[in-house]
From TrEMBL:
Protein name: Cyclic nucleotide-binding protein
Cyclic nucleotide-binding domain residues: 15-115
PROSITE patterns hit by this protein: CNMP_BINDING_3
Classification via Gene3D superfamilies: Jelly Rolls
Species annotation: Mucilaginibacter pedocola
InterPro entries cross-referenced by the UniProt entry: cNMP-bd_dom, cNMP-bd_dom_sf, RmlC-like_jellyroll
Length: 194
C-alpha cells in the first residue's frame, strides 16, 4: 500500500531511500469501509491521511441538521481537519469514507517529527499547503461570485473522475446549491450545444 505514496512523493521532490524508509516507518496503513468515519465532531483531528484508494468527504452539520460538504478527497489527495490538527482543538467536522478506502496515516507527533527531520519532505508539504490554500480561496470566490451554472461547470471540468463517484446530493452540498437547483442546472447543461 505504501508504494503509491512513494510514487506520489517522487513526483513532488527528491527523497533518498533512507528518507522514504523513515517516512514509511512513521506511517500507519489504514483501511476503512464505506460509511465508516475517520473523524467525528468533538474529537481532535490528530492525524493527516494520504488517500491511496477510495474517497472521503469532510463535512459539517448545521444547527438545522443540514450537511455542508467542505472537501472531497480521492486517490493522491490528503485528508484531515487541518484547523483542528493545527490548533489541537476539537473538530467541528466529520470525515466519512464514501467508498471502501485505504490511507497512509500519520499521527500528529510523527508528522511533526518528519517535518523537522526531512527538509525535502517539509518543502513538499509547504508547497502543497500553499496550493491547497489557493484552491480554498478560489472556491470561496467562486461560491460568492459565480452562478450555479458556472459552479457546476467548473466542478465537472475540474473533478471529472470525482463527479462520477459522488452522489449528486453531495455535489449540491459542496457547491452550496439545493438538490433542486443542481437538477435544473444539470438538465440545462445537457440541452446546451457542444
Amino acid at each position: 500500500m505504501f508504494h503509491p505514496f512513494v510514487i506520489y512523493l517522487s513526483q513532488k521532490g527528491t527523497l533518498t531511500n533512507s528518507e522514504l524508509e523513515h517516512i514509511e516507518q512513521a506511517s500507519v496503513q489504514k483501511k476503512l469501509r464505506k460509511g465508516q468515519y475517520l473523524l467525528e465532531e468533538g474529537t481532535v483531528s490528530n492525524f493527516v491521511g494520504f488517500v491511496v484508494k477510495g474517497s472521503f468527504r469532510l463535512f459539517r452539520v448545521a444547527d438545522d441538521g443540514t450537511e455542508h460538504i467542505m472537501k472531497f478527497a480521492i486517490e493522491n489527495w490528503w485528508i484531515s481537519d487541518f484547523t483542528s490538527f493545527m490548533s489541537s482543538r476539537p473538530s467541528q467536522c466529520y470525515i466519512e469514507a464514501l467508498e471502501n478506502s485505504e490511507l497512509i496515516w500519520f499521527s500528529k507527533e510523527k508528522w511533526e517529527q518528519l517535518l523537522a527531520t526531512i527538509p525535502t519532505f517539509k518543502q513538499i508539504i509547504e508547497e502543497l499547503t500553499a496550493r491547497n490554500f489557493e484552491a480554498h480561496q478560489n472556491r470561496i470566490f467562486s461560491n460568492i461570485s459565480e452562478s450555479a451554472e458556472e459552479r457546476y461547470d467548473n466542478f465537472v471540468r475540474q473533478y471529472p473522475t470525482l463527479y462520477n463517484r459522488v452522489p449528486l446530493y453531495m455535489i449540491a452540498s459542496f457547491l452550496g446549491l439545493t438538490r433542486e437547483t443542481l437538477s435544473r442546472v444539470r438538465k440545462q447543461a445537457v440541452k446546451k450545444p457542444a
